[in-house]
Design brief:
Layout (H helix, E strand, L loop, with lengths): L2 H17 L8 H17 L3 E11 L13 E7 L2 E7 L1 H13 L14 H21 L13 E6 L2 H7 L5 E10 L4 E10 L15 H11 L15 H5 L13 H4 L1
Antiparallel strand pairs: 1-5, 2-3, 2-4, 3-6, 5-6
């Protein structure tokens, strides 16, 4: 076999190999994994893996029960309404440890109530993750209610979560995470609207509407009052005014009006 034939055979084999490789389809779970891994790493230096993800419907009366001791709840706001992100104490602590110490401690974090400082330190990682999720999940209509959501403010407790969200059915996505070499486990829960808000339908435009409005406006009467000037005079002088009396006006009164 000559050199040309050998190269041709190699090209056919390589081409056949390329044809068997398919691009992995994007799913909500894969989009969350990519967003979380890169988002938390870029902004907080936290290396993590995603162990699993589930989504279920939750009613308004269930919101408060989602909060557990040590959880940090963040109100999310966007064009599609409001949502809530809930970080458990292990995820919250891991984000703060990575930012302040450059590493995640091996031992689990002790339970404690979150502070406003905790909320401020998770704002950038959370926003970056949400932005990356939008990029990866573009075209996935089932998660469109998450698009545009960003950090708004921390919420104090389960009651605050209930008060912050409308009395509608929501979707709760729970994501299990591992960090610190896999020794530490945490979870992120996202409560988001189940459906996109309904946009008001635009009424069909009447071609005669603008002409009718113009006729009515141009035919309307408007009363105008011109004030030449304002004078401050003693009451006794005003009381003595009679028909025909002259009142001196400043020379610029006519030009001013």
């Amino acid at each position: 076999m000559n050199v040309g034939a050998t190269q041709s055979a190699l090209r056919r084999k390589l081409g056949a190999g390329r044809q068997t490789v398919s691009v992995q389809a994007m799913t909500p779970a894969r989009a969350w994994r990519l967003a979380l891994v890169h988002g938390f790493s870029e902004t907080a230096g936290l290396a993590l893996t995603m162990d699993g993800q589930t989504t279920r419907r939750v009613e308004h009366g269930e919101f408060a029960a989602q909060m557990e001791t040590g959880d940090l709840a963040i109100l999310l706001e966007g064009a599609n309404g409001f949502g809530v992100a809930i970080l458990d104490v292990q995820l919250m602590a891991a984000l703060i440890e990575a930012q302040t110490m450059g590493r995640v401690l091996a031992r689990p974090a002790a339970l404690r109530l979150p502070t406003p400082t905790d909320g401020a330190m998770v704002a950038d990682p959370l926003d970056r993750t949400l932005k990356l999720f939008e990029a990866h999940a573009a075209g996935l209509t089932e998660v469109a209610t998450c698009f545009g959501m960003r950090f708004a403010t921390p919420l104090a407790d389960g009651l605050a979560v209930t008060m912050a969200l409308p009395d509608d059915t929501h979707l709760m996505t729970e994501i299990a995470l591992a960090f610190g070499g896999g020794e530490r486990k945490g979870r992120l829960r996202l409560i988001l609207p189940a459906e996109l808000p309904k946009r008001p339908e635009l009424a069909q435009e009447d071609p005669d509407w603008h002409a009718g409005i113009e006729r009515n406006l141009l035919g309307a009467k408007a009363q105008l009052t011109a004030v030449l000037t304002r004078l401050h005079l003693p009451l006794e002088k005003i009381a003595g005014f009679e028909v025909g009396d002259l009142i001196a006006l400043p020379s610029k009164a006519l030009g001013g009006v």
